[in-house]
Each structure stands twice: as structure tokens, then as C-alpha cells.
Prior knowledge:
The chain is mostly helical. It contains six helices and no strands. Helix 1 runs antiparallel to helix 2 (30-40) and helix 1 runs antiparallel to helix 6 (81-97).
Amino acid sequence: xxxxxxxxxxxYLHSILRAQGSIRRGTSVALLELKLAYEFLPKRIxxxxxxxxxxxxxxxxxxxxxxxxxxxxxxxxLTTDAAVQQVIRAANVYRARLRYPPLSMDGWLKGGGx
Length: 114
């Protein structure tokens, strides 16, 4: 079994954060990116993301629900302010371990840029 390192974990957390931003802008296919990144996280990390419960994340699958058939609700549940901020906090733990500057609570580096 291959060991996952801090950089891998940070990459998956950044992917989740990027997907959350895309979903908030109305891109439903980003639900699949979020689900894949979430599934690659070690269980010890994903279980701490309580704002992204596995049962809700698991609803992101092909075919995506049709508009009006729960799609908007699923998108909203995975991109609440609390869910996004939790992913940012988790990413900042790994950013600190790797000696990277932290993200602000809006998901950007202080001074601008992702």
C-alpha cells in the first residue's frame, strides 16, 4: 500500500476547495471532482471534515441529478460557508507543515492569488 504524504493531502484539499468554488458558481460537474478528491483523502482526514459527510459526498455520482431533482440542494449542502471554511482550516494545517503561507478564510493567499 502506497503511503500518502502531506503534499498529496494538501493537493486533495486544494482540489476540494477549488471544486467548492466551481460548484458555488453553478458548475455541477465539479461535484465529481469534489467527490474524487474526498475519496483519495486518508480516512483519518476525511472523517474530520464533518461538514462534508460521506453520505452527502456519495450522492455526487453519474448521472448527476437533473436540475430540480435535488441537484441544487446537493450543491448547496457541499458548499456551505461552514464546509468551505473547514476545508480551508484543514488545508492550512498542511500548508503550515509544508511551510507554506496560510490561506485566508476566503480561500486566497493574503495579498491575493490562490
